[in-house]
Amino acid sequence: MSLTRIFAYALSGMFAAFGGLALTAASTYGDPHSGDIYTLNSVAAVVLGGVSLLGGVGGLIGPMIAAFILTLTKTILIIRGEDANYAQVYQGILIVVVVMIGGLAVRQKRKGG
Fold first, then answer.
1. What is the number of other CB atoms lying within 10 angstroms of the CB of residue 20?
2. Backbone phi and psi for residue 86, each to the nearest 5 degrees, phi listed first
3. Residue 24 class from Cβ within 10 Å (0-12 exposed, 13-18 middle, 19+ buried)?
4. Are 47 and 92 in contact (CB under 8 A)?
5. What is the Cα–Cα distance from 55 to 28, expressed in whole angstroms?
6. What CA–CA distance (Å, rounded) separates 45 from 9?
7. Whole-prediction pTM value?
8. Short-list 71, 46, 72, CA closest to 59
């Protein structure tokens, strides 16, 4: 195993620990299921950011922008006075649309090439 890979895993573990500590500090109690809602959002940000789930090919900026957009949807709903629970619905629709567009682009690439 290369030193770069070991460093990447160590850095990932460190950030996961910091995230867990921040969530525990914000919620003031330790519940092992308190971060379950963030799993879908993290995968959604990766998919919307253009990273392939099949090969892991992608960049850093795309998922960061996608995470910002996913966070922004809930904020916009709250500002507009709508129910914030609809944010999950809008995020799901956005994911489906982006995945469909990506699938169509791959299909066109294979068809044309």
1. 13
2. -75, -10
3. middle
4. no
5. 38
6. 20
7. 0.65
8. 46
Cα→Cα distances 44→1, 18, 63, 99, Å: 29, 21, 9, 10
Per-10-residue mean pLDDT, the chain, length 113: 90 92 84 78 83 76 88 86 82 83 77 67
The token pair at 12 is 């990932």
In the chain, where the domains are located: 1-35, 36-113
Residue 63, token pair as written in the block: 């998922």
- Cα distance between residue 31 and residue 35, in whole Å: 8
Q: What Å distances lie between residue 61 and 2, 35, 49, 68, 99, CA to CA?
A: 25, 24, 8, 11, 18
Residue 36: DSSP 8-state: T
User: Residue 52: CA atoms inside 13 Å, Cβ hemisphere, count?
Assistant: 7
Residues in the chain, total:
113
Residue 7 is predicted with a pLDDT of 93
CA gap 74, 92 in Å, rounded = 12
